[in-house]
Each structure stands twice: as structure tokens, then as C-alpha cells.
Design brief:
Number of strands: 11
Structural class: alpha+beta
CATH class of the largest domain: Mainly Alpha
Oligomer: single chain
Shape: elongated
Number of domains: 5
CATH superfamily of the largest domain: Transferase(Phosphotransferase) domain 1
Number of helices: 30
Strand content: 5-15%
Radius of gyration: 33 Å
CATH architecture of the largest domain: Orthogonal Bundle
Distance between the termini: 62 Å
Strand order of the largest sheet: 1-2-3-4-6-5
Length: about 750
Amino acid sequence: MNFRIMSPGAIMASPNGESKTNFLRVERIFLQLCDLDEAQRESKIEELCEHDPELIAQVRSMLRADRDTSPVLDPERLTIERVSVDSIPESIGKFEIQDVLGEGGMGIVYEAIQESPKRKVALKVIRERSVHAKIKKRFQSEADILAKLNHPGIATIYESGFAQSDHGDIPYVAIEFVDGELINRFAENQSLGIDERVKLLVKVCRAVGHAHALGIVHRDLKPGNILVDAEGHPKVLDFGIAIDTQLDHRTQITQTGQLLGTLQYMAPEQVDRAEQTEQCAQTDVYALGLIGFELLSGHHPIGSEGSSLYEMIRAIREDEPKSLGTYDRSLRGDLEIIFSKALSHDIDRRYQDARAFADDLERYLKRQPIQARRLSSWYQLRKFTQRNPLLASMFAALFIVLTTALVVSSLALSRATRDRELAQQEQRNQQLISEFLTDDLFATGDPNFGGDADISLVAAMRESSESISERFRDAPEAEARIRFTMGDQFRVMNEYDQAIAHLSRCVELSESIDIPIDELVQRRNSLSDVYMDIDDLDTALELVLETNALAESSDEMSPEVMIDTLVQHASLLYHMREQPRSAPIFERAVEIGRTQAPDYQGTVDAISALAIVYTRLKRYEESIELHHEGIELRTNTLGPDNPATLTARDNLGLLHAQRGEYQIAEEMFYSVLEDRLRVFGEDHVKTHLTRGTLGRAIYRQGDFERAEPMILDSLNGLREVLGEEHRYTIVLRNYANEMYTMWEKPDLAALYEQPIADSDDN
């Protein structure tokens, strides 16, 4: 006989009466057929079932569950439907039997009336044919575990003992009778929204968390073991294969290699017998993640409909669960990250128990920062390099940036001069930069040299920055290059204090040595960019005007750097709300680019920037034409995931929003947000801005409930990264005020009142 999944029956009340079917007859026929090959089964099934279509269907259901090639994703296919037995006993001990609630391979759960005190109970007993030492021990273990639990979200045990029968004493457990619906059916029948479903899951997690606090792991959590009563209170049922981790492991019943539970709700460690990983609270967290995933999305994140038994086991062991936002865009963001953590293949990365899972879900409900975060760069490097070559190494990428800049500069210098002394100095610069990368920066992540294998790229850059001054003490040009690259990288990662420190020192060093005018201007422009990012526009303007004077006084500046400088100046005027003054400067940059540097990326930037200005000046037709030109150029030259390409797409969405075309804008913002989450992560400024503009496009269409969490999440994220008074934060406060005003919630709108500021491009 093929290997089988044991799926203990859940203790549940039947809201609707089930048709009377003789389960024992079904079981008897199944046992006669299960060891036969397919042809023999087909020749016997009609005869044994006496051509009864209903009986044939029941038997086929059990046979499908037994076959290793049968679909197993649907829980209803793993067990025969709950049935009532014609020949149920009138009583078992001091319990009057009313009906059958559930059937399993080794036990039956009856609806019964307890004699004293008089009350309805769920009476779980072992089938007479299953009574042997190991089963009795497991049954007694369940009674002992239930006796330890005292929580309103867990069905209460009333009594356990033995009832006499012709085959000797039969163990039983009398448990609280729960009159309710399966959790997923309850949510559907009550038409619960996302937050209501999350609150329901929190209650379940709190109940399971109570068990975890006592060292008890359920190991068979699934929708069928969670009932919700009419008042919306869930009850966790069926601790039949639970373990008490506080007991000596030798007393545990489950043996190595056994597969107990319901397959599609098992964690990887439950099916991966080769690993023999100890099952613990995180095993239940994984199952709760699956339950919540289905509760919110209506889909299962592992395998696919029609998966065979072994296909399902392989998927659980090897495949990463699908993302929650795959099925519903509104579930992206914090919820997506929370469930990603709960469903991590790495047991150490999951929430430590159900209480921690519930805590983060409640933070989401309160719109507070969640504890779950996307994986660090080092962790992603270790886990995903083989699957995704694009993530081969964050440090390697930084290394390439630094060394490429060095080689380009070195080649330019060698062409400009053959002076032996300068060539030797350049060789020394290259050696110092290489030593910094290997001995300082990369060593922070190498445990062999006292580093931390789990360090993030930002932390590694911060730590290694402390050695720059000493290492490059007598090499100002090499130090300027390192600080220029480090400063730009810190800016990309929103580490503005570090970016300013490195770029300021870079400019200071660059002005003290003889370097080409192009390099000096580029370094000054980068420093101006950071001050614009943090909204210190006065300092940025001072730097820009000085750089412009320097550029105009030189005859050696390349058209590429001139374009960059013009765009820098025009962008600052734009952010200072002087769009009419910025337009002619952008137009000059575009003209120089098209005539002198048509293949230069800065020309594309100028085209895209001018498109934004034309949008603000309501020159829409010219703007749309430039937007599409910029997006096409950036996609072809930089790729679809490049930050500049994403910005260009986002700005086109802003144009449609400004024209009142909110449905078109919503679709564009959704697409950009999806890519920015993947490229930048959850906590980047650009991600927050796109989520905010998406929320605005949605509430402008009157869908306030869907927009609210997006607006508030974006606002809180920008507050955390940029501060309360940054222009982007102010824009999002304006959005919140406008949203609640349109929603006719003046008390909430008043919380976000302030002078109106126009939104900026993202």
C-alpha cells in the first residue's frame, strides 16, 4: 500500500445536518481495494458498492487521498466528507450519543450529552480496531496537553477516561462543544474586510501563543481545526498530535520519519525527514502563516491545484512560498513582509512563536512600524546568489563601481601624460584603494577576520569609513575618489549624514589638487544633490551658483558635464517652486544634449525633467511626448529596473493624475510600486512616495478605505526617514488632510492641517 498522510479529524459542530451514510461500509470497501492495482480496483469497485453512485463517490474519495499521484492541495480531497454513522451507539459510558461530528483514521468524534453536569460535549474516542498501546499513549498525551491549557481561544477539556466495550476499555476525551463555522467560511459569510480578517487571525495566534508559552506545539494547525462562533470568537481544536517540548524528548510519541498532520499545512521541517529538524513553536508559526495567507488572499502559497502527493512534498521542501501581494495588490507592503517572515524556509528567521507573530500583526493594525524587515544584503547574498545571478554580491557591485572609476581615471591620466612620477602615483592610488576594499570594507563581513557574516552593506560601509583618513593620509586624490563613491552609495541608501560627510571631504580634497574641471564639477554636483534630498535648499543653491560660475569660466568643460550642471541648477529652481524660471534652463540642457551629446544619459535626464516642468506649466501635450521619449530611452539604455527608469514611469503617472486621469495613474503607480519594492525594498523614500501617490489616485476616485492605509503608511515612513518637516513629508500630510476632508471626516482631517504645498516628482 502506498504511503499515507494521517489527518486526525477535527472536533467540530455541524451547522447543517449531514446526510446519513454508513462510514463503516465505506471504510470496509476501501480496505479491500486500496492494495489492488488500478485495473483491479475498477473491476471491483462497482461490484463492492452494489452500483450505488453515492457510495462509489465516497470510496473513490478515500482512494484518491491514498494514491501518491492524487491531487492533495485541496484539504477536502484528503479526507472523506464528515458523515453521520447509521449504527452509532446510544451511549458511551455516561455520555448519551447524539450524532457524529468527525471521522479520522483512528478515532471518531461524537456530539454527546454529558450526564453530569448536563451539557453538550464533543466526545472523542478511539475506534475499537485502533486500540493498541501506542494509540492509547497518543490519546492520553492529548488529554494531558489539553488539561494544561486554559485559554478562551482553545476548546476546553472537561473529562478523560475509559469506557468499557466488548474489546476492552476504550479511551475517550470529552471536550467543549463548539458551535461554529470554519474560520475561512466565517470570514467569507460575514464579508470581513482585510483588517477584520487580520484581527481574527490575531485572536487565533494569541490562543496558540498561550500553548507555546507552556511549551506545547500543536503541529496540525489548519482551517479545519479552527472554528469561529456567532460572536466572532475563534476556537483552536484537535491537539491530537501536539507535543509538549518541556518533556524529555524520549517520552514524545512521534518517531523519526513519521509524517503526521495535514500535508498542505505542514512546515518544511515536518516533511523533510532528511533534515530531522526539531519541530518547535516556529513550526506552528508557519502553519498560522499559511492559514492567514488563505484567509486574506483566498489562495494557498505552496504548490498548485492538481499537485500530486510527492509534488506537494517537493514544493514544501524546496519552493519559496508565493508573495501575498501576488494575489491582491492591496496586500502588498507590511502585510506582505509579515507573512514572508512567518513563511520563511529558514526556521530561525520566522517569528519565535505565535505571540510574536500576533504582536507584529497588531502593529500593522495600529499602523505602527513592524518588526519584520526585508532580508539584509548579506543574508540575501548567502541564500539567493545561486537562484538569481543579479544578486551575486552587493559588495561586488560596490567593488565594481570603485574599481571602474579608478581604471577610467587611470586610463585618462595615462593618455594625458607620460610623466613617470604621475604614473607611479596613480599606481599607488590603485593599490591603496584595493587594500581599502579588501582589508577594511570587505573584511567587515568575513568571520575569518573577525567580521560579521550577517552585517548589512550600510553597516559595513559605516564601519570601514573610520579607517579612510588614516589609510589615505598621503594620497588625497585616492581618498577623494573613495569618498566620492562612498558618498554616492550612502545617498542611495538614505544615509544622508554619512553622504554629506564623505562628499564634503571629497570636494575639499578635490579643490586642493590639480584635477580636470569635469571631475571637480561632478563632485560638487553630487554634494548639492544630497542637500536637495534633505531639503536644505539654501545650502544647495549656494553650491549650485558657485559651481555654475566655475563651469562658465572654463573652456575645457565637456558638453556632458555642462548638461549635468544645467540640470542641477534647473532642478533646484523647480524644487523651490520656480518652475517658469527652471524651464529655459532645462530647455538649454536638452538642446546641448541633442546637438552635442545625443547618446549621453544626462540628455535623457534633461528630457525627462523638462517633461515634468511642462506638466506643471500645463503644457500637457508637449509633456506626454517628452515623458514617453524619456522612458523609452532609459529603458533601452539603463534597463527597466534602473531607478532612473522607474522615476520616469512614476512621473508619467503624476502627469495623468494632474490631468484628473486617476484610473490610468493608479495602474501606472501600482506597476512602479511593485518594481520599487523589489528594487529598493519597503523602507526607501522612493517606495514611500510611490505608495503615497498611489493612495492619492485611489482616494481621488472615492475609494477611501483602500487608500487610507497607503497614505498613512507612506506618511509614517517618510517621517521616519526624512523627518516631519521635509517637503515630501509635508506633501503626504497634505494628502492625508485632503483625503479625510473628501471623506467627510473633519476630526481626522484636522490632524493633518497645514499650509498647502504642491507635490513633487518622485
